[in-house]
Amino acid sequence: MAETSAAVGERLSELLPAPDTAERRVIEAMRYSALAGGKRLRPFLLTRSAALFHVSPRAALTVAAALEMIHTYSLVHDDLPAMDDDDLRRGRPTCHRQFDEATAILAGDGLLTRAFEVVADPASHTDPSVRCELVRELAEAAGARGMVGGQMIDLMVERGIGAQPQDVAAITRMHQLKTGRLILFACIAGPIMGKASPKMRASLHAYGRDLGLAFQIADDVLDETGSAQDLGKTPGKDAAHGKTTFVTLLGLDGARDRARLLSDQAVGHLEVFGPEADMLRAVARYVVERDR
Q: Which residues contact 270 (CB under 8 A, 6 or more apart)?
């Protein structure tokens, strides 16, 4: 993962050059957030799933960088005063604290739109039909039927807008949209790029679905138990905002057990790939055992 993170960072830097023109400030803000490091879990999943189908590493890295742009944009906007109003991200000031709110909004917008420009470019894949499918899948994962929709539900629950249920099923659906859909895209982009069989694509789809939810449950646990130094962001936000989480619904032990069960299920979906998928099996264990 460290090697992938470094490679994605280099590719992001290439794809986000800072010009010597009047708009330089917004690109500096985009680079500030996109090059801040982090686990780079989504790019790692994408490049490893692509490797199963012998996709060009450079092409996979390009799409992985675009996916990381979208993930980063979501964090920039999530940290804004109108959303979570946070001061710390990846161990340093959030984008709107380092620059200003307007610049942070534009930086998020710039990262989102640049991501689709990158995926649509022939550098991501030589086959136009594959690029079109990647664009469609990524747009669905990031939009109102995916991450944006999940974020809306989260805000409605937090602010008491409408009669939003707060049981396990409702929280599961919210997080499948808010967090899980980009993780799911990371897992199916590889078979899309590799023109894999429906069976193999379905296996990675199921893996990504269970892994994404396991990751979010583990995040809920860490928000309850982690420190700012370990997490690189402000802990305890969910409790402070009165949010219903898997921890509040299941308790710490119950949440940990649910995350491990989902991790085991994710691993089971990889049987068709044999030892070539061992790295994906390892990351399924990692997401529930990590401490940051």
A: 203, 207, 277, 280, 281
Q: What is the dihedral of CA 207, 208, 209, 215, to 10 degrees?
A: 110
Q: Which residue has the tokens 């691993």?
A: 267
DSSP 56: -
Spell out the alpha helix ranges (H) of the chain. Answer: 2-15, 24-34, 41-51, 57-78, 95-98, 101-120, 128-142, 147-159, 168-175, 181-193, 198-225, 228-231, 237-240, 246-268, 278-289
How do residues 158-170 score in pLDDT, each as one tens digit?
Answer: 888 876 678 999 9
Residues 110, 30 contacting (CB under 8 angstroms): yes
Closest to 53 (Cα-Cα) out of 188, 231, 206, 167: 188
Q: Quick count: other Cβ atoms within 10 Å of Cβ 279?
A: 17
Residue 113 CA to residue 268 CA, distance in Å, equals 36
Are 273 and 202 within 8 A, CB to CB? no
Q: Minimal CA–CA distance to 175: which of 216, 116, 143?
A: 216
Q: What domains can you pick out in the chain, each with its CATH number?
A: 2-289 (1.10.600.10)
| Residues 149-202: tens digit of each pLDDT | 999 999 988 888 876 678 999 999 999 999 999 999 999 999 999 999 999 999
